[in-house]
Amino acid sequence: MTEKESQTKLSLIDTHTHLTFPEFDEDRQEVLARAWEAGLECLIAIGAGVGMGGNDKAIELAESDPRIYATVGVHPHDAGQMKKDWSARLLKLSQHPKVVAIGEIGLDYYRRHSEPEVQKKCFRQLLELARQSGKPVIIHDRQAHDDVWRIIDEVGLPEAGCVFHCFSGDVGLAKKAVKAGYYISIPGVVTFSNARKLHEVVAEIPLERMLLETDCPYLAPEPYRGRRNEPAYVVEVAKKVAQIKKLSVEDVARVTTLAAKRLFGLPL
Fold this sequence. Notes:
The chain is an alpha/beta fold.
């Protein structure tokens, strides 16, 4: 980063945060203050991840600040807990003015907190719900690429599109997503020296189809690796993407922020 760039406050969007998780209970407002100071224009609080109650918490947080938006959904880890009335409730919540997407939803065959067949049934239901809501989808795909795409092909996605959160596939899969008109989201993992597959993806995929995220409190980038992640650290993701693509950090911030606004229907 040049001296001029270091003196310019970047305008960034952290498109995937779990700020309602207990890890932030003691200092959430301080974390947010650091995010705005680092140059974040806004951020998205993911509702999925702690059962149905997480969706209400994400919306409540979004209502507290005009720079925060929310999503609603059921994480694949919680698929086994999904009750019959959840779909109707999620559909209603999805119409809240601060809710910008359905997510994160998908499949996770790495941890398998829910059985794969249960996850697939839940994923299908949530894709149908997303189509009804008209909101874009945030997809969680961990070691389940074939089944994720198979279900997408079967059920379809809303016209608003989707993003593959914390992208973990190879270049071929990334190009398939881009060709279909979808986005891929780059996490702090890209700053790790051994993340060669993700480095190749960033080098090969158009910047216009990339979003940036922290997935905080997880996956803190270098030089914060091993610590709790937070939205301010998305700056490090932008720096690494700029280095790989041989662009200025300012350009990376501008293009990825515009991409996020287009996907999530945020004010341009």
